[in-house]
Amino acid sequence: MATVSAVKGAGPRSTAMHRMTAVVRTAASTCRRPAAPEQARAAVLAVRRAAWLSPGRTACLEESVAVVLLLAMRRLSVVWCHGVAPDPVRLHAWVQTADGAFVAEPGSTRSCTPVLAIGDRRDH
Length: 124
Hints:
By secondary structure, the chain is an alpha+beta fold. 40% of the residues lie in helices and 19% in strands. The chain is built from 4 helices and 5 strands; from the N terminus they run H-H-E-H-H-E-E-E-E. It has helices at residues 2-8, 16-29, 37-51, 60-72; strands at 33-34, 76-77, 79-85, 90-96, 113-118. The strands form 2 sheets. Strands 4-3-5 form a 3-stranded antiparallel sheet. Helix 3 (37-51) crosses helix 4. The longest helix is centred in the middle third of the chain and has 15 residues, at 37-51. It starts with a helix and ends in a 6-residue tail after the last strand. The relative contact order is 0.19.
């Protein structure tokens, strides 16, 4: 979480999303194999537990980027997604496995349409 906060706060607020996606792209480029569903779920849950101790904002964007970084340290990949859901319009960020399965997400995430997806999507 500290790394994500540092990246997000390392420049003007207007370019924070660009910095976050650049970090996700860089981390994804180092990965050698897709994370197994259990590994991805464990990473999401670990990040969510750590987020409770974070003094800054910790929402879906920060959590999902932290998951990508955590797994990338083991050269494991997930697909990072940022999307929008209608009525009411809302933004959401989440991770999926390489085969497109949502990782530790509520059913409401299925109403989101990915606008940006970073990572390797493989057919299994």
